[in-house]
Amino acid sequence: MQDKYRTIANTGEGTYTEKRSKFLAFSHHVETVDEIKELLQQYRKKYYDARHVCYAYMLGPERTEFRANDDGEPSSTAGKPILGQINSAELTDILVVVVRYYGGVNLGTGGLIVAYREAAMQAIAASEIVSRTVEEVITYTFPYVMMNAVMRIVKEMSPRIVSQTFDNTCTISLGIKKSEAGILREKLNKLSFE
């Protein structure tokens, strides 16, 4: 399991024109299928007069949830080339939408693949690519008398403190890189038996 993954921080736009057909591309940072559905609805509404609204998305740090849609274009000529650009940039949590206005001249399957690929590439290139850390949040409950021991581990491992409540019984939630989560959990659990 990798601790880092690449995504985009902002929206990017690109355009590509071929034989009077116009391809408008947009990239978005997304984290859920519901977000994607909402954005697609907005694009279909805004560009109601366009012939096709094709898209591809990739979700999750493991990059296992994805989809490509040709929206009426010949099979694999739109969604797949868009997804190919997402894959070649090794991105996730991203949606790329390409809106096509038909120019009256058929481009053929090769021409369509190139057009969708180029438009998607421009939208991705116009986005700021960022690296994010895959975190696991560990919540630990302990008596107040163990405060110093718990804080020693926090200081030693430097997790991000998500939340904390201190009373007779204390609770602390810590965010840490997925690869170090087991070590942190083990150290905290050992305290309970000292």
UniProtKB/TrEMBL annotation:
On the tree of life, the source organism's domain of life is: Bacteria
Pfam families xref list: Impact_N
Q: Which InterPro entries would you find in this protein's record?
A: Impact, Impact_N, Impact_N_sf, Ribosomal_Su5_D2-typ_SF, UPF0029_Impact_CS
Q: Which PROSITE patterns match?
A: UPF0029
Impact N-terminal domain mapped to chain residues: 19-124
Task: Give the UniProt family note.
Answer: Belongs to the IMPACT family.
Q: What is this protein called?
A: YigZ family protein
